[in-house]
Each structure stands twice: as structure tokens, then as C-alpha cells.
Write a structure and sequence with these properties.
The complex is a heterodimer of chains A (about 140) and B (about 290). By secondary structure, chain A is α+β, with helices and mostly antiparallel strands. Chain A has a 5-stranded mixed beta sheet, with helices on one face. Chain B is of the alpha+beta class. Classes of the chains: A alpha+beta (about 140), B alpha+beta (about 290). Chains A and B meet through strand 1, strand 2, helix 1 and helix 3 of A and helix 7, strand 8, helix 8 and helix 9 of B.
Chain lengths: ~140, ~290
């Protein structure tokens, strides 16, 4: 997915996955775009290196939560408001659709996305996705 | 008040010796005249009350006009035949920032119109002065006006002509349309963006196939060249990563421009995270982490 964003050696990636996480009903392509976009932003926010911590956990019996925390440059309050707007961009590269599409996909899954950020300290994106009730039907196609 | 008396002939006359004698018809005529005068007075009294009623009605209609224009959101400005302001309502004060005292008696266009429109105004008004007609009369126009503090803003103006005491006067009703203009601009921008979005979606979709072909070609070259030179290998790497970048951009564009409902698969989020973070295309690390 992320290609060029070969994560540089300077960035330490810590992944803490909750092994008991229940399955959810979702579009794997869209979800990998969701996480991929956030990882890519995190990497680009840490040009000097830093930590990227990705955690998954069962937030509640009906909610799976994934947090992606970086120690990058952070997002100003001003920019936080516009973060998900189409064509909003602070980087030299890209067209400003990454987080817009991320939010669109998360919401299409009935989920939510939150951001916490402090300039100079880093940002944390938290994505919550619903766990289906037992009787939800699932496409049989792969 | 003047009531003409009918001449009563032969009411009385004086004889030669100075003695007054009553004429034969005089009494009858006198009664008639009194009756006529009574009638006249009655009709005058009636017209007096009518007059008072009319005055009352006039006062009422004036009051109506005043409260109407005072509570109106639109500025109501009246100009005399010289183009001077003689009526200025509350909204006019609010919109332009001039109090009635400041505005009354001033030449309207000098006070309120932007400099560049003064010539047009002059031409139009000279025609209006004589004939009660002009380029703005009876129309609704969008113009630029100037506030007391000098800021220009868009207005919507409608002007009508009214003849008072034989001379043409103008009534202008106008509103500040700054908000509306902004909305229009926003809407136009949104429409443009929607069209661009459609275009981007179409382009993205069309680029997918050739990009797929390039990707396959790179894969084939990678397989075919068993031991490529270092610079060739590096070039192939660049090709591969840039194709992936392009794919990601196209996916984002299509995700916005042609959003599809998510497919419904039973998946584990951990696996997706694993794939995203540990996939070869992402990592390509020379050493482990």
C-alpha cells in the first residue's frame, strides 16, 4: 500500500495488538487505505525519526478501537479544524485527500475517527469500528 | 369662510318722508334666504368634519408609512428633484452608518455611490429630473455602495419615480447583499469542485488500467533480469515505488469522487494492521526492526 514510505530506520514502530480482538464486518481494501494513510502521515510528520505506536483493543463489547500515535511535529489547533477537509494540505507532496478519504471510509463503516495532537509532541489518531451483532449477514464472496 | 348672500330685493324701502315700509314679498323671501343659509352652513359643517376625517386618515397613513419604513430591513431613501436625500429610514442608517441628520439634504450619489459610478449616475439622473425616467427606474439592480467608513459593499437597489408637486422625486429601496454574494460565490465554488471531482474521478479511473500494465511490466522486468546492474535495480525500485504512490493517489481520488459502499467481509482488524505495517511494499527494510 504505502510504497515509497518505506518506513525509515529512524522511526521505531511499536505494534501492540489485542489478540482477543473479535472479527468485524468491513471492506479490507478501504480499511487498509484508512490505516495506510494515517501511517503515511505519521511517517511524514517525523522526518527526524521518532516512535510510531499502533495499538488495537476491544474498547467495549461492541467497539474495536485502533490508535496510531506518533511523536512527530503535531497539528496546530487551526489546522485540526480543517484536517479532514478535502484539498487541505500542509505537506509539499500530495493532493490533500488522504484524511478526507480516511474519514469517509471510517464513517461508511459506521465508525468514528478522532485526533488528539500537540504541536511539537505528536498526534494520536483513534479509530473506532463497530463489532457486528451475531446475526449480521456477511457476503460469501471473498 | 365666505358665504354669498343672495340679494333680497325689496326687503324694505324708505318713503319720501323717511318712513320704512315692508315690501309685500319680503318676509317670504327672507325665510327662503334663511333656509338657504342654514343649508349652506350645514353643508359647511359636514365638509369640516369630512376634512377632519381626511386629516385623521392622512395622519394614520403617514404613521403606517413611518412605522413600515422604520421597521423595514431594507433601506428606504427618497430623493427630491435635485437628487438630495429628504427621507432616510432606520435601516438606511444601519446599512450605511450615517444618521438621518447626517444624510438628509446631502446629494445621494456623492454620499453613497462609489466614485467610479458618479458619471453614470449624473447622466441617468439628469434624464430622470425632467421626465421621471432613467436607466435605473423600475428595475432591480446590483450595484456597489460605500459605507460611512469607506468600505464598499454590494447592494440590490430598486428605484421608482413619484411626481410630487409637479416635480419628479425618486424612492430607492436597497439592501446589503454581502451575505448573498458570498453564498453565491461559495455555491459556484462548490459546483466547480463537483465538476472537477467528476473529472478527477474519470481520469483516475482511466489511469488505473495503464498503471496496472506498468506495474506488471516492472514485475516482469524484475523477474527477467536475474542479476541486474545496481543502477538498473535502483531504477526498477523507483518505478515500483512511484507506481505504488500513483495507485494510492488514484485510490484517494476515487474514494472521494466515486465513493463505493464498503464491501462486507468478516475480517480481523489486527490482520489489516499487520498487512499495512509489515507488508513488503511498506517496509522494504534492508534489515529487520
Amino acid at each position: 500500500m504505502l510504497s515509497r514510505n518505506t518506513i525509515p530506520e529512524k522511526i521505531r514502530v511499536v505494534i501492540q495488538l489485542d489478540k482477543a480482538l473479535p472479527n468485524i464486518v468491513a471492506d479490507p481494501d478501504q480499511l487498509s487505505q484508512v490505516f495506510g494513510n494515517i501511517v503515511l502521515n505519521a511517517v511524514q510528520a517525523m522526518p527526524e525519526g521518532g516512535d510510531l505506536v499502533i495499538k488495537s483493543k476491544l474498547e467495549s463489547p461492541k467497539l474495536v478501537a485502533v490508535s496510531l500515535k506518533d511523536t512527530g511535529k503535531g497539528i496546530s489547533k487551526e489546522n485540526l479544524r480543517k484536517l479532514f477537509e478535502p484539498l487541505f494540505i500542509t505537506k509539499a507532496k500530495g493532493i490533500g485527500l488522504g484524511l478526507t478519504v480516511t474519514k469517509t471510509f471510517v464513517e461508511a463503516h459506521g465508525g468514528t475517527i478522532e485526533v488528539e495532537s500537540k504541536v511539537g509532541k505528536g498526534s494520536t489518531f483513534i479509530i473506532k469500528l463497530p463489532v457486528p451483532s451475531l446475526h449480521t449477514s456477511i457476503d460469501s464472496s471473498p | 369662510m365666505h358665504i354669498a348672500l343672495n340679494p333680497i330685493k325689496k326687503i324694505m324701502f324708505m318713503n319720501n318722508s323717511g318712513k320704512m315700509t315692508e315690501s309685500k314679498n319680503t318676509k317670504e323671501q327672507l325665510f327662503k334666504e334663511i333656509a338657504r343659509l342654514r343649508k349652506k352652513i350645514a353643508s359647511l359643517e359636514k365638509s369640516e368634519t369630512e376634512h377632519m376625517q381626511m386629516e385623521e386618515e392622512l395622519r394614520e397613513s403617514e404613521e403606517k408609512f413611518r412605522s413600515m419604513t422604520a421597521s423595514a430591513k431594507d433601506a428606504v431613501i427618497m430623493l427630491d428633484n435635485e437628487g438630495n436625500i429628504f427621507y432616510w429610514n432606520k435601516a438606511a442608517k444601519k446599512i450605511f452608518g450615517y444618521s438621518a441628520r447626517e444624510a438628509l439634504g446631502k446629494e445621494c450619489h456623492i454620499l453613497l455611490a462609489a466614485n467610479r459610478f458618479h458619471d453614470d449616475y449624473q447622466k441617468g439622473f439628469s434624464q430622470f429630473k425632467k421626465f421621471g425616467k432613467g436607466p435605473v427606474i423600475g428595475k432591480t439592480l446590483e450595484l456597489v455602495a460605500v459605507k460611512r467608513d469607506g468600505t464598499e459593499f454590494p447592494i440590490e437597489l430598486s428605484v421608482s419615480a413619484v411626481k410630487l408637486k409637479g416635480k419628479w422625486n425618486a424612492i430607492g429601496i436597497l439592501r446589503d447583499i454581502t451575505m448573498r454574494k458570498e453564498m453565491e460565490k461559495k455555491l459556484m465554488r462548490q459546483e466547480k469542485l463537483a465538476i472537477l471531482g467528476q473529472l478527477a474521478g474519470g481520469v483516475g479511473h482511466e489511469l488505473r488500467n495503464p498503471l496496472g500494465a506498468i506495474k506488471n511490466a516492472v514485475y516482469f522486468l524484475n523477474m527477467a533480469l536475474e542479476k541486474p546492474e545496481p543502477d538498473v535495480k535502483e531504477t526498477l525500485e523507483i518505478l515500483k515505488t512511484e507506481v505504488l504512490t500513483s495507485e494510492r493517489i488514484i485510490s484517494s481520488i476515487l474514494g472521494i469522487a466515486r465513493p463505493k459502499p464498503p464491501t462486507r467481509h468478516k475480517i480481523n482488524v489486527n490482520e489489516v494492521i499487520d498487512e499495512v505495517c509489515c507488508h513488503e511494499t511498506l517496509y522494504q527494510r534492508k534489515s529487520g526492526w
